[in-house]
Amino acid sequence: MDFDLNKLKVFYYVYQTKSPTKAAKKLYITQSGVSQHIKALEQRIGATLFSRDKKLLRPTSIGHELYKTTQEYFATLENFAQNLRNIDGAVKATIKIGTPSGFSIAMISKLVAEFQKNYPDITFIIEHGNPQELEAMLLEDNLDFAFTDPYVTFSNDIKQVPVFCEHVALIGPPNHFKDYKDQNELFDQLVVEKFIVYKEDAPITKSWFKFHFDKIPKSLVIAARVLQTPTIIQMVKMGVGVAIVPRYLVDNCVAKKELCYLETKAQLANTINLTYREKNHSLRIVEICREFFINYLKSFPER
């Protein structure tokens, strides 16, 4: 069966973007042109490639299989085209990185600046998201790699490399935490606090309790659920609640007496992983960048 490569390319981008409108913009054609190509390809194959559910475009099982077949082909072509563009010795490429917001503020700008000293023509695209969103983008090849915390289990073809260790602390408004005579009294004080958490099940907050008290409260009073660390810090300053955050992100605020730590004998360490999908069609420059980031971050002391 012969296939029109233009129609396959349209299908490839519609599948990746889940949107005829976005695919049309990437391909510089009209949305109606995209729809016509998909319809013609479905007629050629004799099967429906996408179903529509409340205006959402969902690939059918045949659509998934066709994408698996075309994915490596188009990725190889893009790799070949990239190598041709780089034949003059200047490496030009776009590298897409996923990251939680707090880590991005602290580290990404430094990593990008250091890497671009040797590769000034590299363009970086930074996407923010929670681990589930980042995993989805990795599996759909919309990210080259991502930074994630250890509180989620990824699918088997996702590899994680520990690269950075950050210490986390419980913070509150100035002079918020009361004196206590022992750990039991402290635990009783804390279980009635209002917590600002990153996720609904509050994994890092529960880990903090387990680390310090060897037990987890039966329930937590959740004042707010927020993904962005800077927003959490601002909400703590305003008295919305207390929160567990990376310590180095609030050292200055504590020094200025805008916040306070709950002082503890030991500090819980949170490991940040560089996470990527193992595949055989990554651009060489992406692999170089990934290894650079891994080695650079491993050279940092714990924070």
Domain module count = 3
Percentage of residues in strands: 15-25%
Query: What is the CA-based Rg, rounded?
Result: 24 Å
CATH superfamily membership of the largest domain, which one? Answer: Periplasmic binding protein-like II
Helix content: 40-55%
Largest sheet: 9 strands, mixed
Query: From N to C, what is the helix and strand string?
Result: HHHEEHEHEHEEHEHEHEHEEH
Count of alpha and pi helical runs: 11
Second CATH tier, the architecture of the largest domain: 3-Layer(aba) Sandwich
Enter the CATH topology name of the largest domain: D-Maltodextrin-Binding Protein, domain 2
Structural class: alpha/beta
Q: Return the average pLDDT rounded to an integer.
A: 84
Overall geometry: elongated
Q: What top-tier CATH class of the largest domain fits best?
A: Alpha Beta
Number of strands: 11
Summarize the structure.
The protein has 11 helices and 11 strands. With 303 residues, it is an alpha/beta fold.
Protein model, in words:
The chain is α/β, with parallel strands linked by helices. The chain has 3 domains: 5-85, Winged helix-like DNA-binding domain superfamily/Winged helix DNA-binding domain (Arc Repressor Mutant, subunit A, Orthogonal Bundle), CATH 1.10.10.10; 93-163 and 271-298, Periplasmic binding protein-like II (D-Maltodextrin-Binding Protein, domain 2); 166-270, D-Maltodextrin-Binding Protein, domain 2. 44% of the residues lie in helices and 22% in strands. The protein is built from 11 helices and 11 strands. It has helices at residues 5-17, 20-27, 31-45, 61-85, 101-116, 131-139, 183-190, 203-213, 229-237, 251-255, 284-298; strands at 50-53, 56-59, 93-99, 122-128, 145-148, 158-172, 194-197, 221-225, 242-246, 260-261, 268-277. Strands 3, 4, 5, 6, 7, 8, 9, 10 and 11 form a 9-stranded mixed beta sheet that branches. A two-stranded antiparallel ribbon has the order 1-2. Helix 8 links the parallel strand 7 (194-197) and strand 8. Helix 1 (5-17) packs across helix 2 (20-27) and helix 1 (5-17) packs across helix 4 (61-85). The longest helix has 25 residues, at 61-85. The mean pLDDT is 84.
